[in-house]
Amino acid sequence: xxxxxxxxxxxxxxxxxxxxxxxxxxxxxxxxxxxxxxxxxxxxxxxxxxxxxxxxxxxxxxxxxxxxxxxxxxxxxxxxxxxxxxxxxxxxxxxxxxxxxxxxxxxxxxxxxxxxxxxxxxxxxxxxxxxxxxxxxxxxxxxxxxxxxxxxxxxxxxxxxxxxxxxxxxxxxxxxxxxxxxxxxxxxxxxxxxxxxxxxxxxxxxxxxxxxxxxxxxxxxxxxxxxxxxxxxxxxxxxxxxxxxxxxxxxxxxxxxxxxxxxxxxxxxxxxxxxxxxxxxxxxxxxxxxxxxxxxxxxxxxxxxxxxxxxxxxxxxxxxxxxxxxxxxxxxxxxxxxxxxxxxxxxxxxxxxxxxxxxxxxxxxxxxxxxxxxxxx
Length: 377
Fold this sequence. Notes:
- The protein is mainly β.
- It is 11% helix and 39% strand.
- It has 6 helices and 22 strands.
- Pfam families: Asp (PF00026).
């Protein structure tokens, strides 16, 4: 397997570090006009700040080329372009990379340059994709910060997990997310190299990240195994308990929005929370005031513990109009779950790599804690 420390050492020898001692760094999470959560990172010499969309569902880090800012079919927001000639530490590698996502694609060339956290003393030399093509129509950010695991079989990598996450820079091989309350400005935070207890009212419960047996037992996504989901529905004082058996993976992806579940049992899930899936399937728009009347508990049962979800965690207004809410669950023809930011934001999460080297022995963990009332969305 590919070792983080190997690339980190090579990049260190090329350009060196400029920092004092390992630490934990906290930066603010902003929300763009189109709803993307971003954090600031600085690139180049002298450093220029770029607001990058947080995405735990992909591994490359990329920024926009000037040609793409000018002509790519994406948002007309005021986005920052990375201009190689303006950085004295820019180094082209000659490599190209194409990346496909569920919502779009980018392509371009790989370069190496100095990166730091919000102009701090964390400067490292890292590989980044300079995107000269993007079809992300509404993305009003300067690029993307990929935080999934780089695959060993991929010939070209551009992952911060292979550079910034090293024992010379960060206290621990982890990051933590409090997504915020969607205020203006947003009050969310992203922590590099550690986590705190300021935002959570419960201890962090950790769940093992699963490897993909169909892909050489590799780490790819921040995915956990779900045995089943237990439901408790209160209808006019009558409590009904039911279980949906899952026995599959759930990918926790901050770059996605909704909770996507298999078509095989999505109707059962809706019935167990007191809703009619046929209404949703036919294009019905649930009123938010009706969803707020639902009284249920939904508990994911994982091998290492449980995650409890309440109605308020799944309510998202703005489905065509503010009084209508987005469907709580979306269908997929696949077998696994995809859990997006609209659910993740209701927890304080810790993304623990389990070590500095991505190897066959590494066991990453994903931690969840319930938020204090004053921090809940």
